[in-house]
Design brief:
Chain B: Pfam families: BPD_transp_1. The complex is a heterodimer of chains A (504) and B (284). Chain A is of the alpha+beta class. Helices cover 29% and strands 21% of the residues of chain A. Chain A has a five-stranded mixed β-sheet with strand order 15-14-16-13-17. A four-stranded mixed β-sheet of chain A has the order 1-10-9-8, covered by helices on one side. In chain A, strands 4-5-7-6 form a four-stranded antiparallel β-sheet, covered by helices on one side. With 284 residues, chain B is an all-alpha fold. Classes of the chains: A alpha+beta (504), B mainly alpha (284).
Chain lengths: 504, 284
């Protein structure tokens, strides 16, 4: 019967994801049998497999999730509370003029390979991020560094071209790697509580407690990040016990399965992930501020947020989430008002509208957001062509080649308003006043001065509608009720695993 | 029904319509009618965010609404049109290329025939979906037309191989030799003798390929390689409903039902056509 074959083919397409799930469930259940207490393996289900294992080589947010604080440590750490804490830096001193920082390194720290941590490793690691070929999104924020000296094995002296008040903060992004390490895109040699056991591309990444860790040992017997391409499979894995934790739930609909069930814990924390309609501000007509403002006013973001996230999430009027010190409520700047949007387009000489191509990453929620935008902008005569692309294509076409008109992207970073002070960033926003404010905020002598300047910059980018900030994601962690001690805020998509415990 | 009564009267001269053909025609006809209707009217505009997020099926929204509050029944109706467009388009392309190449191979010299036959076999060895994905990847971005062309190319190989075999069998007949020796041109042979002899079998195959093309397009769209949004392909509807399958299961069930009805319909139609074209095989 031919139609049986035909139907079963579709069935194959639909159940591919389920098959992956079944395999991972089988793997995990064999491990779960003996597991509880300090030797328990914690299984974390994630949608963000790293592209590679080097955060200076465009590895994506997955590598921060798996490696920050777990495999690699930095001189400082951005704790889940948002505080900057010392890690490998035991103490530091800044000179009177703020141009020289002297860091004393912690004693008795070794890399997983057995090499001791020296000042030369720190110098190597910072220079790696600053190198011209580095793809780190934070490269620019370290450009104030003029020189790094290593007077002895445990002392690092950083000389700056100008004051940089957030130097310790920025250094929290710099993994300290062994200067003798090779092939960092596929292996790792850090100082963290876990070493990389293995990485099975497309499937999982296994971390084992390091024997020579300088600090307190992890409260579990290891961590496995299992990668899913699709949220339904991920949720099912948690339901069946194949994984213990989902670090960030990506749709409100999956919560229905876990809320009110005593076997699971649902925690809503504070996220820094912003959904953006980013224009290429260099090209017509997006170079015109009136056009950008018109587009900001034409989209009913409240309804969009409700469509994507139900009752969760927050509206934002600029790139700054409420957890950043320079937050002010700017949702009123270009509030939803389609009539004035039409008016602005007319003033911009585009009475009959225009059309543009929207490069849309092919994973949730971007295609749905794109359709919403297409619909809303259609009402003011702007035609949107949705062009679906993969996350790899996004990186090469948009982030690197900057060859696009507009795109959708989620920006996960904490304190990333500084990207608007870089005219070479992919969205090409270039306002000399903002560039100056962000640069001089960095040169502030006090935190108050820095906050004041960045708040000013924040207001200007909002007035300029530099991009279209659609909403702030909620940060929702769902776990089995047996595990506890995990971070709930997921700042910068970090997920420190060493304090996670699993009970019977 | 009327078929049963005809059954009782069998033995009459008139060839009866097989039940499969009638049911197939009804199911496919339903889809064709809906597809035609969407050209003039749908319950809501395809982009009207008329309802709330994920409404359950109701009198106002027969299949409920999606996350943006759009009417799913409207999208499923438009999906019918897209499925038929893809099926018909892909089969037309496949038939045009496949029948031409198949006949060419049948008439060709030994070497060319072998080369063509090998090419068909290699193309057939590729899974249809994979071949389609390759064509989509090579073209400039996924679109409805790239999906149609891709599937058409994949189908053409199957049709070509079938045509070649059928045509060879006919070309060996004595009356063809007679026609050739009497100076009939090869074009005349093709149109007067060959095609009328092989078309019933080809038609059955086209119907089968139509069903496969509809499924393949749904799979491509499901993978994000078919018609881009806002084209309401069933595959894309399924993909979008996947994340909400626990809170709003009907969003995944409804396009699935539509897809199954059409594919079963064309397969029954194919079975029925075969029985009709070859009464000795269909009689029970």
């Amino acid at each position: 019967m031919p139609y049986i074959t035909a139907v079963s083919r579709l069935h194959h397409a639909l159940t591919g994801a389920v098959a992956v799930l079944a395999v991972s469930a089988a793997m995990a259940s064999s491990a779960a049998a003996q597991q509880a207490g300090p030797d328990a393996i914690i299984n974390i289900g994630s949608l963000y497999e790293p592209q590679n294992l080097d955060n200076t080589a465009g590895a994506g947010q997955g590598v921060s999730e798996a490696f920050n604080g777990n495999v690699y440590e930095a001189l400082f750490r951005l704790a889940d509370s948002g505080e900057v804490e010392p890690v490998l830096s035991e103490s530091y001193e800044a000179s009177e003029d703020g141009l020289t920082y002297t860091f004393k390194l912690r004693e008795g720290v070794t890399f997983h390979s057995g090499d001791p941590l020296t000042a030369a490793d720190v110098k190597f690691s910072i220079e790696r991020v600053m190198a011209p070929e580095s793809k780190s999104s934070r490269r620019n924020s370290l450009s104030t560094i003029a020189n790094i000296e290593t007077p002895d094995d445990k002392t690092v002296v950083i000389t700056l071209k100008q004051r940089s008040i957030s130097l310790p903060y920025n250094l929290s992004y710099v993994w300290i790697v062994n200067d003798a390490a090779k092939e960092l895109t596929s292996s790792a040699d850090g100082t963290g509580p876990y070493r990389l056991e293995n990485w099975r591309r497309g499937t999982s990444l296994t971390l084992t407690p390091s024997d020579n860790y300088w600090g307190e040992a992890p409260r579990n017997g290891g961590v496995v990040f299992t990668y899913f391409t699709e949220a339904t499979a991920q949720n099912n894995a948690l339901l069946t016990g194949a994984i213990d934790i989902i670090p960030s739930v990506q749709s409100p609909d999956s919560l229905a399965m876990f809320e009110g069930n005593p076997q699971f814990t649902v925690t809503e924390g504070v996220s820094t992930t912003k959904e953006l309609l980013a224009y290429n501000d260099r090209v017509e007509p997006f170079s015109n501020v009136k056009v950008r403002k018109a587009l900001a006013r034409a989209i009913d973001k409240k309804r969009l947020l409700a469509s994507i996230w139900g009752e969760h999430g927050t509206l934002i009027g600029s790139f700054v989430p409420p957890t950043d010190p320079w937050y002010v409520d700017l949702t009123g700047v270009d509030a939803y008002d389609p009539d004035s949007a039409r008016q602005l387009l007319e003033e911009a000489g585009l009475k009959d509208g225009f059309s543009f191509s929207l490069d849309t990453p092919n994973y949730d929620p971007h295609p749905l957001v794109a359709q919403f935008i297409q619909n809303e902008l259609g009402k003011i005569g702007v035609k949107v062509d949705i062009n679906l692309i993969t996350s790899n294509e996004w990186y090469t076409k948009i982030y690197q080649a900057q060859d696009f008109q507009a795109t959708l992207q989620e920006h996960v970073n904490h304190r990333d308003i500084v990207f608007y002070g870089n005219p070479n960033f992919y969205w090409g926003y270039d306002n000399p006043q903002v560039v100056e404010l962000i640069a001089s905020a960095e040169a502030s002598a006090t935190v108050d001065e820095q906050v004041e300047k960045l708040t000013e910059a924040n207001k200007i980018i909002a007035e300029d509608a530099a991009s279209n900030w659609l909403y702030l994601y909620p940060q929702i962690v769902v776990s089995s009720a047996k595990v506890s001690g995990y971070p709930v805020n997921g700042l910068n998509s970090q997920f420190f695993a060493y304090t996670i415990e699993k009970s019977r | 029904m009327s078929v049963a009564t005809q059954d009782d009267l069998s033995g009459g001269q008139k060839r009866r319509l097989p039940l499969t053909l009638i049911v197939g025609l009804i199911l496919v006809g339903l889809h064709v009618a809906i597809a035609a209707l969407t050209l003039f009217w749908t319950p809501y505009g395809p982009n009207d965010m008329a309802g709330m997020r994920l409404e359950a099926p109701s009198f106002a929204h027969w299949a409920g609404t999606d996350r943006l509050g759009r009417d799913l029944f409207t999208h499923i109706m438009i999906g019918s049109r897209i499925a038929i467009q893809v099926g018909a388009g892909a089969v037309a392309i496949g038939a045009l290329i496949g029948v031409s190449l198949g006949i060419l191979a049948a008439f060709a010299t030994r070497t060319l025939d072998d080369a063509l036959a090998a090419t068909f076999d290699i193309l057939i060895a590729f899974p249809t979906l994979l071949l389609a994905m390759l064509v989509v990847a090579a073209s400039d971005g996924a679109s409805l037309s790239s999906a149609i062309i891709a599937l058409g190319v994949a189908i053409s190989a199957i049709v070509a191989r079938l045509t070649r075999i059928l045509a060879k069998r006919v070309l060996e007949m004595d009356y063809i030799t007679a026609a050739r020796t009497s100076g009939t041109s090869w074009l005349q042979i093709v149109f007067i003798h060959l095609l009328p002899n092989i078309w019933p079998t080809l038609m059955v195959n086209f119907a089968l390929q139509f069903g496969l093309a509809v499924i393949a397009e749904a799979s491509l769209s499901y993978l994000g390689l078919g018609a881009p949004p806002p084209n309401a392909s069933w595959g894309r509807l399924l993909q979008e409903a996947q994340g909400t399958v626990y809170t709003a299961p009907f969003g995944a069930v409804a396009p699935g039902i539509a897809l199954v009805i059409l594919v079963i319909g064309v397969n029954l139609l194919a079975d029925g056509l075969r029985d009709y074209a070859d009464p000795t095989r269909g009689r029970r």
